[in-house]
Amino acid sequence: MSKLTLGAYPHLLGFEQLERLLERTAKTGNEGYPPFNIEQTSDHSYRITLAVAGFSESDLSIVVEDRQLVIRGRQTDDSEGRIFLHRGIAARQFQRSFVLADGVEVGEAVIENGLLHVDLTRAVPEPVVQTINIRKG
Fold first, then answer.
1. Between the CA atoms of 82, 86, 92 and 98, what dihedral angle is there, to the nearest 10 degrees?
2. Of 61, 71, 67, residue with least CA distance to 24
3. Sheet strand arrangement including 104-112
4. Is 70 within the bounds of a domain?
5. ω before 127 within 30° of 0 (cis)?
6. Residue 1 domain-assigned?
7. H/E element, 26
8. Domain limits for position 43
9. What is the Cα–Cα distance from 107 to 42, expressed in whole angstroms?
10. How far is C-alpha 98 from the geometric centre of its chain's CA atoms?
11. In a domain? residue 134
């Protein structure tokens, strides 16, 4: 079976970037940790919430790289000199990636009660109507 590409559809002009975006999204490699929610908070805004219990602000980083929101968490292992009878809470690293559409901007990030909230807004483009003059060649 051959792979379908958007270039195979003659009415979809200039969508090569969308195809690359879909391929990049498929390769993000996100596991199930940490769990997260995405909610729509208004017609043009969203909130991503990650469960980051045990992480402080200094353990977390949030960057936008090439229209991709990347949230990383790194905890230091402070178990030296401690004897655990049971260790169910491990110092764990993570990286979560979210591909952003054009016009989506990252706003405020807040951590409270073990949850990291990242607010996003989407700019509403103005409708554009363009008339093309036809000249005689």
1. -150
2. 67
3. 36-42, 45-51, 115-122, 104-112
4. yes
5. no
6. no
7. helix 16-26
8. 31-76+89-124
9. 14
10. 2
11. no
- What is the CA 17 to chain-centroid distance, rounded? 17
Q: What proportions of the chain, in percent to the nearest 5, are helix, strand and coil?
A: 10, 35, 55
pLDDT of residue 3: 61
With respect to residue 11, please indicate whether it lies within any of the assigned structural domains. Answer: no
> How far is CA 126 from its chain centroid?
25
The number of C-alpha atoms within 13 Å of 125 and in the hemisphere containing its C-beta is 7
Identify whether the C-beta of residue 117 lies closer than 8 Å to the C-beta of residue 51: no
- Phi/psi at 7 (nearest 5 deg)? -65, -15
Could you read off the pLDDT tens digit of each residue along the chain, which spans 137 residues?
456 666 666 666 676 766 776 676 666 555 688 999 999 999 999 999 999 988 999 999 999 998 899 999 998 777 788 898 998 877 789 999 999 988 999 999 999 999 999 999 998 888 899 999 999 97
Question: How does pLDDT run across 46-83, given as a tens digit for each residue?
Answer: 999 999 988 999 999 999 998 899 999 998 777 788 89
